[in-house]
From TrEMBL:
Classification via SMART domains: GAF, PP2C_SIG
Key words of the record: Hydrolase
Record keyword Hydrolase present: yes
Superkingdom field: Bacteria
Cited PANTHER family: STAGE II SPORULATION PROTEIN E (PTHR43156:SF2), STAGE II SPORULATION PROTEIN E-RELATED (PTHR43156)
Name of the molecule in the record: PAS domain-containing protein
InterPro entries, sorted: Bact_Sigma-Reg, GAF, GAF-like_dom_sf, HATPase_C_sf, HATPase_dom, PAS, PAS-like_dom_sf, PAS_fold
Keyword Hydrolase belongs to the record: yes
Residue ranges of domain PAS in the record: 158-196
């Protein structure tokens, strides 16, 4: 190659099999297209095809193919390993043999097409190389489009911003230019080193196996996805990726991004494919356009390219490809070119359509003029196409699809074109069916994974609002563009719009306003999705009214007053576009009752695929059961909490010259009251009762004893009974409960504030942790003696003890959830509680209770497993003069 500098290389070895020729062509085509050398791709593919054919077919050995890139062209080397070849004599003029012979054509083509070429022999190897220089490409004539009126030019902002993002081999962001910071709100410092996947919203659907990570590994890629901005919004972008490597051999990917509506800035123009040359005849093979280059990895790409090449082959104005459903009763539109594909994609048409001999999709059909056979090809209705030829795709006699091309002029096609198209369809049918089955398998696996994940998420919550949000978030954008959930409280209630979500957050409010103005769908329990036309009709009407207001027209179309398009009108038009497609409703049925409807929508006349609707139906069944479980849980929780709140005192009374503070913590999620309880209540003028107790066990049985104890204490105390008599009667009432009775520890006392600023207390401690008294000097002592607990023996002999709290003294009463707080083998205990109380000298009752609680919580890392109640009473010191 002389002094040319090699800037890139790619090598591959191909087995001695007939299929290796097509694989080698694919390798060279992809390599050169990835390098940007599209001008020499076709010549390189033709030469490689012939040379590899010589190696794997005629020589019967493996073929080594090496592609070398230079600044001004490309060199391709093909070697075989024939073991017994004689080294030929050098000759001034090489002998190519006859052009009609079975070999030698590769060298003949090299001489005709290559800039330079050569052959090197060794006893075990033949090495053929050729050089293709890039053609001169003066500025401005690489590609050109027609002169268009200004109104037809693509719409862009006043300043088009192109974000340049470079991704290293690990997928991390290495470079982020100013336009990227402007478009997405993230500065370079904030994103450098982070994974691009952290910021992308990839349009993933069940069964799709290509993600952003895969796209970054390809040599070249173009397409649309979303970038999450700094404000959390998803910004649709059109991207062009090019994979490069630096001088050290490290690969990276350069990504150019523009706003999606400015995609014309980056989008590569459609290029008419040049078919390979048939080596035997020297003529262009029209059918090679279907097999001359490798099929895309995904089915949609293969179908779209097939439709485009069918149109090119017959010089048509449009082409379309449909795939049959599993039962072969309908055909689903999967690819179109020259037609409004956005409105037709995934639409279904019956196999037996129209009348006459052209009505069946199972046979080739030529329609010389569709105006004379209306409805023969439903897909072309209203498109302006006049003549059309359709051929079936069949595999082993089974209908798998239909391929058609159309022209705007009548009489363009005859049986000859039908035969040519049928021959091409036969060659591509098996590849299409194989790709379809692969897609179906991926879709089923993806659907199963989707449903498993959805079930896990729905089972993880019993909150109604969170369940509604999960339902919508799982459907948007995976299954639909927008989603609305209607709920029904009971059989006599009307459906209520509970949740609305759109993949574009800016359109949620407009969508919600639109749906609120129309009647909800009927709650029909019939399973399966049904089409609901009301949203699209309302959106179209709203858009029409907004357009008329913009033009200054009244409802009758008469000129009223010219106006300008305000933000409200723009919002209405955007909402109409968002809801303009197909809308379906799926019932939410749980326990043989319709509890709501799940509504899914598509924009711009899009249609739902049957597989997506089946997946949505499976999801709706799971979501309905989760939503009903959340409803039942919410109802029972509301009842439980209402009953629990009735067991707590409504409030603490104001006791003259005595500070009282209570802290209560019930163990267990959702519990407001457990087995512990407290109460402070007035008995009569100047006298107040207080109690703190602990019922054995937890749950409803313990709560029932709690309610019995609290209400009995108040009633008996106000009847004039003293402390021992109150507890003895309460003990009898507990024992009367029989098998439902629970033993109870209880500290009960009566409090009398004194005129000298002190407080007199009479207490009875029935099996409860002893109350602790904190004096002003910091000393702590027990304020009562232990006595038998309640609910165990019938005959109790209890007595009360008198305690006087001087100004500044504190009486602390707790349940055993405080003293029995554990961390491993350690326990806080009575002594630990006393030590904490000793540090509370001079604190108010509220501060004392808070310090005790903080000490208990810090004693162990794990959450408390027992209920806790803390009752602190303090006699304040008289104010100093």
């Amino acid at each position: 190659m002389g002094s040319a500098v090699i800037t890139a290389r790619a090598a591959a070895t191909f087995d001695p099999a007939g299929r290796s020729v097509a694989t080698a062509r694919a390798f060279v085509r992809d390599t050169l297209q990835g390098w940007g050398y599209t001008d020499v791709v076709d010549d390189a593919v033709v030469l490689t095809s012939e040379l590899v054919t010589n190696a794997v077919i005629h020589a019967g050995t493996a073929a080594d193919v090496l592609c070398l890139r230079t600044e001004d062209g490309v060199r391709i080397e093909v070697s075989d390993h024939y073991p017994e070849r004689e080294v030929p004599l050098q000759s001034a003029v090489p002998d190519f043999g006859s052009p009609d012979s079975e070999n030698g054509r590769g060298l003949l083509l090299c001489a005709a097409l290559a800039t330079r070429w050569g052959v090197e022999y060794s006893p075990t190897r033949k090495h053929v190389w050729f050089q293709l220089d890039l053609p001169e490409r003066p500025v401005g004539i690489r590609s050109a489009g027609p002169l268009l009126p200004v109104g037809l030019l693509p719409v862009a902002d006043e300043r088009v911003r192109v974000a340049v993002v470079q991704i290293d081999s690990t997928g991390a962001i290495a470079a982020w230019n100013e336009d990227a910071a402007f478009l997405f709100g993230h500065t370079a410092d904030q994103v450098t080193g982070k994974q691009l996947t952290d910021f992308t919203a990839w349009p993933q659907t069940p069964g799709t196996n290509t993600g952003i990570v895969d796209a970054l590994q390809l040599s070249r890629w173009e397409g649309s996805y979303g970038i999450r901005g700094a404000d959390g919004r998803i910004i649709p972008v059109y991207a062009s990726h090019l994979r490069v490597r630096d001088t050290h051999g490290e690969p990276s990917t350069v990504c150019l991004l523009v706003r999606d509506y400015e995609r014309a800035v980056l989008q590569s123009p459609a290029r008419t494919p040049v078919s390979d040359t048939n080596a035997e005849s020297g003529k262009t093979d029209p059918f090679e356009i279907f097999i001359g280059s490798p099929a895309p990895d995904d089915l949609d790409g293969l179908l779209q390219r097939t439709a485009e090449r069918a149109r090119d082959m017959l010089d048509a104005d449009a082409a379309f490809l449909l795939l049959a459903t599993d039962d072969e009763t309908e055909l689903e539109v999967r690819a179109t070119t020259g037609l409004p594909s956005a409105r037709q994609r995934f639409a279904r048409v019956p196999v037996e359509a129209g009348t006459g001999r052209y009505g069946s999709a199972r046979m080739p059909a030529v329609h010389e003029d569709l105006d004379s056979v209306p409805g023969a090809v439903p897909l072309l209705g209203g498109t302006g196409m006049r003549s059309v030829v359709t051929v079936p795709l069949k595999v082993e006699g089974r209908l798998t699809g239909s391929l058609g091309v159309a022209a705007e002029a009548a009489g363009r096609y005859s049986n000859e074109e039908a035969l040519r198209l049928q021959f091409a369809a036969d060659r591509i049918a098996l590849a299409v069916e194989s790709a379809r089955l692969g897609e179906l398998e991926r879709l089923r696996r993806g659907s199963l994974s989707f449903l498993v994940e959805a079930s896990d998420l729905l089972a993880g919550t019993l909150d109604r609002d969170q369940t509604l949000a999960l339902m919508a978030q799982m459907t948007v954008p995976t299954l639909a563009t927008w989603c609305a959930v209607y709920t029904i409280a009971d059989q006599s209630s009307e459906p209520y719009l509970s949740y609305v979500l759109h993949e574009d957050e800016d359109r949620i409010d407009g969508l919600k306003a639109l749906l609120s103005k129309i009647a909800p769908p009927d709650p029909v329990p019939t399973p399966g999705a049904r089409v609901w036309t009301a949203p699209s009709e309302a959106a179209h009407q709203a858009a029409l009214r907004s357009s008329m207001r913009t033009l200054g027209l009244g409802e009758t179309g008469r000129l009223v007053e010219p106006g300008r398009m305000g933000s409200g009108i723009r919002t209405t038009l955007a909402t109409a576009s968002a809801v303009g497609g197909e809308t379906v409703v799926l019932p939410l049925v749980a326990r043989n009752r319709v509890i709501g409807m799940l509504t899914l929508g598509k924009p711009s006349d899009d249609h739902f695929r049957q597989e997506i609707l089946e997946l949505a139906e499976d999801l709706s069944r799971r979501a309905a059961l989760a939503l009903d479980n959340a409803r039942l849980y919410s109802e029972r929780m509301a009842i439980s909490q209402s009953l629990q709140r009735s067991l707590l005192p409504p409030g603490l009374p104001e006791v003259p010259n005595v500070e009282i503070e209570v802290i209560y913590r019930a163990a267990g999620e959702g519990n407001e009251v457990g087995g512990d309880f407290y109460d402070v209540f007035p008995i009569r003028d100047g006298a107040y009762g207080f109690a703190i107790g602990d019922v054995c066990g937890t749950g409803p049985e313990a709560a029932a004893v709690t309610g019995l104890a609290r209400h009995a204490l108040r009633l008996l105390a106000r009847e004039g009974f003293g402390g021992p008599a109150v507890l003895e009667r309460l003990n009898a009432a507990i024992l009367d409960e029989g098998a439902r009775s629970r033993f109870l520890t209880l500290l009960y006392g009566e409090l009398w504030p004194q005129e000298d600023g002190s407080a007199l207390l009479k207490v009875v401690c029935a099996g409860h942790p002893l109350p602790l008294r904190l004096r002003q000097d910091g000393s702590v002592e027990a304020a009562a003696e232990p006595q038998p607990l309640l609910g165990v023996i019938e005959e109790l002999e209890l007595y009360e003890q008198t305690v006087t709290l001087a100004p500044g003294d504190v009486l602390l009463c707790v349940t055993d959830g405080v003293t029995e707080r554990r961390e491993g083998t350690r326990m806080l205990g009575d002594d630990g509680l006393a030590d904490v109380l000793a540090t509370c000298t001079g604190l108010t009752a509220g501060a004392v209770a808070a310090r005790i609680l903080r000490a208990v919580e810090r004693f162990a890392a794990e959450p408390a497993s027992d209920d806790m109640a803390i009752l602190a009473m303090r006699v304040p010191e008289p104010p100093t003069a």
